[in-house]
Design brief:
20% of the residues lie in helices and 26% in strands. By secondary structure, the chain is α+β, with helices and mostly antiparallel strands. The longest helix is centred in the first third of the chain and has 18 residues, at 5-22.
């Protein structure tokens, strides 16, 4: 009953096109400078203030895996990265799915999902592969209907085995570079790994999950 290789390839291409079409411009893309006449009272040396990230939002849902109904909490949020001087460098967006009713989290695994970067958010891992819901795609590489895209419980999901955290790399999806950061500060193998490493450490601390079994996907 699994998805064929052709169907999986089509889904990956479909979601990558969807992300390109719907994602806002990269955070490190220069914006046109405002004209002096737009705000005559503004100081010519004023530094733009980076707005704070929006507050995390959680909602509650259920999904069915192998005939078992699993209640879970979905959290969309951001975690801010900092450099060695304590300056904010990036706001990394994530969506976490955590099973409800788990008393002892030391035995509940947590898996972190991310695509290879730079340039890839986790939309296809999230909505096409392993999240608790998935978008219906046409079989045999057929045409997929336009929006609104229908969602169904994902029979290939992993929430029955682990909590799931889908992370957007800096400057992809809803993750943004902040402060004085440039793309070159993150776009590289070691720099990419360092960003995800700091995100995971901060997530584990904020959610008290250091004793949970941890996996990278």
């Amino acid at each position: 009953k699994g998805m064929s290789s052709r169907e999986f390839l089509f889904a990956a291409i479909f979601f990558s096109c969807l992300v390109v079409a719907t994602s806002p411009a990269r955070a490190d893309t220069p914006s046109p400078a405002p004209s002096a006449s737009a705000n005559p009272s503004a100081s010519p040396t004023a530094t733009p203030v980076e707005p704070p990230p929006p507050a995390d939002v959680s909602t509650h849902h259920t999904t069915v895996l192998d005939g078992r109904t699993i209640p879970y909490t979905a959290t969309a949020g951001t975690i801010t990265l900092h450099d060695d001087e304590g300056e904010a460098t990036a706001s990394m967006f994530y969506v976490a799915y955590t099973q409800d009713g788990i008393a002892d989290l030391t035995h509940r695994p947590v898996t972190f999902f991310y695509n290879g970067g730079p340039g890839s958010s986790t939309i296809w891992l999230h909505m096409g592969s392993f999240g608790p819901k998935r978008v219906i795609v046409a079989g045999n590489a057929g045409a997929t209907h336009g929006p609104p895209y229908p969602l169904v419980d994902n029979e290939y999901g992993l929430l029955d085995k682990s909590d799931l955290v889908f992370i957007d790399a800096p400057a992809t999806g809803f993750s943004r570079l902040v402060g004085k950061s440039k793309g070159k500060d993150f776009f590289g193998i070691d720099k990419d790994a360092a960003a995800f490493g700091q995100f995971i450490q901060r997530y584990l601390t904020a959610n008290k999950r250091w004793n949970s079994p941890k996996f990278l996907f």
